[in-house]
Amino acid sequence: MNGHIKPVDLSRASRLVNHGPTVLVSARHGGVDNVMAVAWCCGLDFDPPKLTVVLDRIAHTRSLVEASGKFVVHVPNVAQLQLTEDLGTHSFYDDPGKLAAAGATLFDIPGHDLPFVEGCSAWLACELIREPHIEDAYDLFLGQVTEAWADDRVFRNGHWHFETAGPEWRSLHHVAGGHYYAIGEAMDAVRKPD
Amino acid sequence: MNGHIKPVDLSRASRLVNHGPTVLVSARHGGVDNVMAVAWCCGLDFDPPKLTVVLDRIAHTRSLVEASGKFVVHVPNVAQLQLTEDLGTHSFYDDPGKLAAAGATLFDIPGHDLPFVEGCSAWLACELIREPHIEDAYDLFLGQVTEAWADDRVFRNGHWHFETAGPEWRSLHHVAGGHYYAIGEAMDAVRKPD
């Protein structure tokens, strides 16, 4: 766990995904770790922070989430473009060596029996909020964020710093096929009184 | 309805929100139209396309969605930064003249009894998929996209063209307060065979 990985206050954790990045979802069960890319991840509540992820039933990682009741949401960055693509298009069911083939390196965070992917911009440890009907009907999973961390080279003091971090730190926003956009220019609106 | 607004094939409609933009949600009931900004909107399925939106119970627009069972998801752009901020921070409950104050102009699309906001990049007409438990417990609403349109100056042939459209067409990605990022640079990963 490198020295740039710093805790994020839970009241600010929703900001890690508020801008709609494509994420990685990892889980562990029965001695097996896996990671998949997920374009459909979304904030659900601020405090305590909750989020939603859509996990297709053909995804092996989904089976680990269902079995263990927990998962990690990661915010990958431009330096991980090909890693993200590979983790989203290859299945453990076809290739149990998928993580190594994609170049994913895992690390542990003490107190969490979960696999974390090195090199991301942020990590959100989540407990599955069980809602069997919507899991079955829509592949939609709800999670409560129990602890969050970010790399302080791109997120610190509760704010993203894409403007000043290098371009390799920008979040990825998947469109279709192998096509993505990086997050772009910062802009501020005037917040007017009610 | 200006001549640049073109239908989007439903099989491609999920691409309109796949990259995680902040959206506008509008609805109509009993002769009242309203629009709110929503950062938490997410794809849910491809074909037929479905999506999720989180609508806080303090939002007047939510009451119109609940009463009418339908809504429009809009993808606003940089030219609409202040409009988006104003629609997200002011409530019809406090100011029934909110739309005019924000400078929102509505238009109709034949066959849809719904209010559409001029100047956006894309519009998705949705029917509410009733799931009362998750609406009540999480403020989470599911919609099936019944028809979609985009402005062909920024989305055409099933693809976003942020790279070649002017910077005013970039989508908005809200972080917190009045702070947003525009979508940025396009990038392609190599899609490797299984």
The unreliable regions of chain A are none
Query: What would you report as the Rg of chain A, rounded to the nearest angstrom?
Result: 16 Å
Average of per-residue pLDDT values of chain A: 97
The assembly state of the depicted protein chains is homodimer
Number of helices of chain A: 4
CATH topology of chain A, by name, is: Pnp Oxidase, Chain A
Distance between the termini of chain A: 45 Å
Binned strand content of chain A: 35-45%
Largest sheet of chain A: 8 strands, antiparallel
Pair of chains with the largest interface and how many residues each contributes: A-B, 63 and 63 residues
Per DSSP E runs of 2 or more residues, the count of β-strands of chain A stands at 14
The CATH homologous superfamily of chain A corresponds to: Electron Transport, Fmn-binding Protein, Chain A
**Derived structural class of chain A:** alpha+beta
Shape of chain A: globular
State the name of the first-level CATH class of chain A: Mainly Beta
Order of helices and strands of chain A: EEEEEHEHHEEEHEEEEE
Total separate domains of chain A: 1
CATH architecture of chain A: Roll
Helix % of chain A is: 10-25%
Keywords:
alpha+beta, homodimer, Pnp Oxidase, Chain A, two-stranded antiparallel sheet, 14 strands, 44% strand, 8-stranded antiparallel β-sheet, 194 residues
